[in-house]
Design goal:
This protein has about 300 residues and is α+β, with helices and mostly antiparallel strands. It is built from ten helices and twelve strands. The longest helix is centred in the N-terminal third of the chain and has 21 residues. The mean pLDDT is about 95.
Length: about 300
């Protein structure tokens, strides 16, 4: 199964829509981090909305997007980083502090995403360009920790965009059964009638993960959630893939930044440094000899 992302225009080009099937991506994330059902649902939602924002906000391969979510729930801090590999392919890496967290299901049988994230804390979105150093930083308090509601609030408050957003991850004993989402943005010339139709359509539609599990196409889903049978495909075959660009050199720079005295202390106490990437769990070992070289190479 491959990830699918398609952009549409609805209601005579007055409404922009993006629909995503991120089942393959979320299953890959589950395997990389060995996630529980609870953390699969949390990181799956974060990864899906990250894909949305990457394909909406990043315009050049030198652009990148970092999302930080820090609530008062037991999962701790969540970080997602997106870049553009090319104009059709976004890359993502994501992690949470507590990958092994598992909570009881809610009374309605749903995974308790809000309980894992918490409803007190912040959502921070950072967009920057590595060449121009242009930077945008938007931060809002968490609304519910359910992710979709928090990002809907972010778009409304930080970017002044009225937005309808849905995210869903369906898991079973074998892993991720379905995952995806949609985002709807009325354009400036959208009418009150357009918005009313969309609101009514969303109210009567099934959850996004259910529609994907029923094998509805992204175009079918776009028609259902907008209430418009005459949608126009704007851009299809957009892609996303998981990619971590960690390296021993990057960890070395981090160790060197500790300074001569701190490295000397570690050398005397441990004789080595073992590191692990949060995003892909690749391990890097720095021997006694390497640490001694760093110390000797540090500015006086």
């Amino acid at each position: 199964m491959e990830n699918k992302i398609t952009k549409f225009l609805a209601h005579e080009k007055r409404v922009a829509v993006m629909c995503l099937d991120t089942t393959a991506l979320v299953e890959e994330i589950r395997k990389i981090h060995d996630l529980t059902p609870t953390t699969t649902a949390v990181l799956g939602r974060v990864a899906t909305v990250s894909c949305m924002m990457a394909h909406l906000n990043l315009k050049e391969t030198s652009d990148n997007l970092t999302i930080q979510i820090k609530g008062n729930g037991p999962i701790g801090t969540i970080v997602s980083i997106c870049e553009l590999e090319d104009l059709r392919t976004a890359t993502i890496k994501v992690y949470a502090d507590e990958n092994k967290l598992e909570l009881p299901l809610k009374e309605n049988g749903k995974i308790d995403v809000g309980g894992a994230v918490g409803n007190y804390g912040f959502l921070n979105v950072i967009r920057q360009n590595d060449i121009t150093n242009a930077k945008y930083n938007g931060i809002i308090p968490l609304v519910s920790g359910e992710i979709a509601e928090d990002f809907t609030e972010f778009f409304a408050k930080s970017e002044q965009k009225p937005t309808a957003l849905a995210l869903g991850v369906l898991v079973d004993k074998n892993g991720v059964k379905r995952a995806g989402g949609y985002i709807i943005n009325p354009l400036p010339d959208a009418t009150d009638e357009d918005i009313t139709k969309i609101e009514q359509a969303i109210t009567t539609s099934k959850p996004i993960s259910t529609m994907l599990d029923e094998n509805l196409s992204l175009e079918d889903i776009a028609k259902i959630v907008t209430g418009d049978e005459n949608i126009e495909v704007l851009k299809q075959d957009l892609q996303v893939k998981y990619k971590c660009n960690c390296s021993k050199d990057k960890f070395e720079r981090g160790i060197r930044s500790l300074g001569k005295e701190e490295i000397q202390t570690i050398l005397e106490e441990d004789g080595k440094i073992d590191t692990e990437c949060n995003f892909c769990h690749k391990k890097y070992h720095f021997s006694k000899e390497e640490l001694e070289f760093f110390i000797g190479d540090c500015p006086q």
